[in-house]
Amino acid sequence: MMQLYSGTTCPFSHRCRFVLYEKGMDFQVIDVDLYNKPEDIAVMNPYNRVPVLAERDLVLYESNIINEYIDERFPHPQLMPADPVMRARARLMLFNMEQELFSQVEIMEAGKEKQMDKARANIIERLLEFAPIFGKTRHMLGDEFSMLDVAIAPLLWRLDHYGIKLGKSAAPLMKYAERIFSRPAFIEALTPSEKVMRK
């Protein structure tokens, strides 16, 4: 059985839990206290971070790598596009999301106030650039739910928690977020600590 070492409030772990529930497979989530990590996390991941996926002799870290492995190993429902061109585009979008959005999320998680203000402004700017897409499509890559939706969902869930306020121009984005939050797998993937992050 797959074991996911997961931070109960970690947005990157949240992504992996979401994919595992979306696939509807047997797995075990091992909750990790982010302020008092067990020593075996540092043994499995040289960066001493969660999430970490362990399956027999395989140990993976970094949420996008874990999620692509799960998607290839359990192809239904498929979350990365089947077409190589679309898959490459999806990977590029995921990379850009990490560089431009989730690097800011890491600053928010670190909790240093001055840096957080700047990170908050950067997140708002990027999300407002995304918003018009959802006036035209149901999901990030069109009509089909994909790994890109999985990737961004934990951030959208945490907007209140991070003190991020988006104006009226973000209405299509927030409607999209509600669609994602209503998915049974998303609801199942939430930890008790995550449930209270959203007002």
Number of domains: 2
End-to-end Cα distance: 35 Å
Number of strands: 4
- Radius of gyration from CA coordinates: 16 Å
The helicity comes to 55-70%
CATH topology of the largest domain: Glutathione S-transferase Yfyf (Class Pi), Chain A, domain 2
What does the overall shape look like? globular
Main pleated-sheet profile:
4 strands, mixed
Q: How many DSSP H or I helices?
A: 10
Assembly state (oligomeric)? single chain
CATH architecture of the largest domain: Up-down Bundle
- Structural class by SSE content: alpha+beta
What's the mean pLDDT score? Answer: 94
Q: In CATH's first tier, which class of the largest domain applies?
A: Mainly Alpha
Strand content: 5-15%
* Spatial strand sequence of the major β-sheet: 2-1-3-4
3D architecture notes:
α7 (147-157) packs across α8 (171-181). It is built from ten helices and four strands; from the N terminus they run βαβαββαααααααα. It folds into two domains: 2-78 and 190-195, Glutaredoxin; 84-183, Glutathione S-transferase Yfyf (Class Pi), Chain A, domain 2 (Up-down Bundle), CATH 1.20.1050. The protein has 199 residues and is of the alpha+beta class. 56% of the residues lie in helices and 10% in strands.
Itemize the secondary structure elements and their pairings.
Blueprint: E1 2-7, H1 11-23, E2 27-32, H2 39-44, E3 52-55, E4 58-61, H3 63-73, H4 84-110, H5 113-130, H6 133-136, H7 147-157, H8 171-181, H9 184-189, H10 192-195
Parallel strand pairs: 1-2
Antiparallel strand pairs: 1-3, 3-4
Helix pairs in contact: 1-3, 1-7, 4-5, 4-7, 7-8
